[in-house]
Specification:
By secondary structure, the chain is α/β, with parallel strands linked by helices. It has a six-stranded mixed beta sheet with strand order 1-2-10-7-8-9, sandwiched between helices. The structure holds pyridoxal-5'-phosphate. Pyridoxal-5'-phosphate (PLP) binds next to helix 3, strand 7 and helix 8.
Amino acid sequence: MHLARFPRVRLGHLPTPLEPLPRLTAALGGPEIWVKRDDCTGLATGGNKTRKLEFLMAEALAEGAQMVMTQGATQSNHARQTAAAAARLGMACHLLLEDRTGYRHTDYRENGNVLLDRLFGATIEERPGGADMNAEMEAVAEARRTEGLRVYAIPGGGSNATGALGYVNCALELLAQVNDAGLRVDRIVHATGSAGTQAGLVAGLCALSAEIPVLGIGVRAPREVQEANVFRLAEATAEKIGAAGVVRREDVVANCDYVGPGYGLPAESTLEAIDLFARSEGILLDPVYSAKGAAGLIDLIRRGEIARGERVVFLHTGGAAGLAGYAHAWAGR
Ligand SMILES: *Cc1c(COP(=O)(O)O)cnc(C)c1O
């Protein structure tokens, strides 16, 4: 696997650390839990989109883009990391943000990632919940192109085969770390949304014959839809890296039982996961993604579906910048 063939711009502080979580492990009574700290990718408070943006922004630069455009929910971590990457590379950034939660709290609408988007100089347009966001963005991008601006449009979550290369790279990085440390890993668990993280990870691990199962914990779509989305993108990513056909359908597994009331709406188990990680390990999770992933990890351990003797790596995809948009979720707790 030869990722240096693809244009890439360095944005992240890589490799991210792989650390044991002994107090969380003890609190749950085993298995042995480790965390891959992709919340520490370095750009603009970090997160998983930084790895994808290393490949996406390189394409934008190669095309001579003057502006990057992307879309997401109001508290999108992807929008925030894109805004920061654009600032770093001297490009304008325009964001379309969808109101997926209906929250009217000032902290949700103006603090957290939204505040950071503005600090990085991005311009923002809002759309109501349920809008076809990639179509909306393409329309806005086209309008700007007819004015003569060179616009590079990035799909939601940075999830296409180019963005997923960032997680092929993470598969390489993680495998080197566990091999060097002599750690046999039985499972990787992480939050899955727009599918690029899991697709890149699975494509990379399959191409490397790692034989490490990946479990994506869904944050929005039902399981069949999520697995189909991940599989489609994993196949395209494998093809892009010259490993066509290496991903089998059964390599893509999602569990979507921890979405709770909906995208961006924390369940009780989401808040419990945030409190547990914070108090046992001093690690911040976010209520939209990483804490739903962690809630799945915690519950599957309690049910014995993840066995005591296993060694599990929780891929921390970041998102804590969004916490400042969710102070209301702790009111009265
Ligand atoms: C975007 C995001 C995810 C999900 O990653 P996808 O590649 O969209 O599936 C998980 N965690 C956080 C914090 C995110 O911002």
